[in-house]
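R.M. (postdoc): so does anyone remember the format we settled on? I'll just put the structure tokens first.
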């Protein structure tokens, strides 16, 4: 682990403590709000790298049983302040090692998590997502395609993302995003990937 990369909680703690959070959108992005309206049945949802955790409230209000996870204590402290009575829906933990039930989730929500991880870790991300989602479950959210001259955030190519997820997931949606922060404008897309029954 390297303190200067996003692979280390200290890297993120420093940024939350200093209020240097260029990725933080201060609320719930539009495509997620629409998705939650269209999927009223709810289920079990995970938000890895939840940061300030605004989306936790939206999942809860839409009838989902939701858990937000972040390995930065400062992020979780912030999320608990944001969430107030829902503070117990978030906890400190590493996405890759925190004890979570295999197949235990119907949905995993992605926003600026994959692009926060060094690319060497991306195959582990894909394996972990495939492990945690039940067959038919969905990985949905915002994927960052760049270009980006000074990562992080680390951009991924469209073919690279298909290569990463394609054996375990089938893409169901791929839409432009109209309410991006300047950092991501024109560089991210809303995607939904459905966990295949085998693979
Ligand atoms: C760019 S921030 C995004 C936060 C939030 N998703 C948002 O959209 O505002 C990336 C977050 O991922 C967290 N993170 C990075 N690697 C992680 C890991 N292995 N396990 C849990 N959280 C991690 C960081 O602490 C940070 O809060």
């Amino acid at each position: 682990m390297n303190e200067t990369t996003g692979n280390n909680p200290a890297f993120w703690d420093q940024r939350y403590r200093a209020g240097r959070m260029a990725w933080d959108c201060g609320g719930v992005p539009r495509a997620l709000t629409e998705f939650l309206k269209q999927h009223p049945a709810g289920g079990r949802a995970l938000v890895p790298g939840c940061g300030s955790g605004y989306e936790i409230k939206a999942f809860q209000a839409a009838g989902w049983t939701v858990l937000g996870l972040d390995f930065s204590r400062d992020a979780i402290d912030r999320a608990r302040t944001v969430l107030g009575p829902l503070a117990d829906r978030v906890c400190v933990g590493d996405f890759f090692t925190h004890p979570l039930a295999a197949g235990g989730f119907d949905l995993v929500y992605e926003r600026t998590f994959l692009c926060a991880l060094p690319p060497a870790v991306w195959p582990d991300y894909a394996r972990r997502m495939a492990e945690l989602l039940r067959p038919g479950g969905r990985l949905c959210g915002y994927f960052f395609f760049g270009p980006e001259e000074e990562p992080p955030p680390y951009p991924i190519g469209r073919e690279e993302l298909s290569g990463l997820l394609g054996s375990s997931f089938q893409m169901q949606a791929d839409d432009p995003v109209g309410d991006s922060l300047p950092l991501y404008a024109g560089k991210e897309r809303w995607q939904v990937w459905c966990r295949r029954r085998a693979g």
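R.M.: ...and that's the designed sequence above, right after the tokens. Also worth knowing: The first helix runs from residue 9 to 18. The helical segments are 9-18, 30-38, 54-61, 73-83, 122-132, 158-165.
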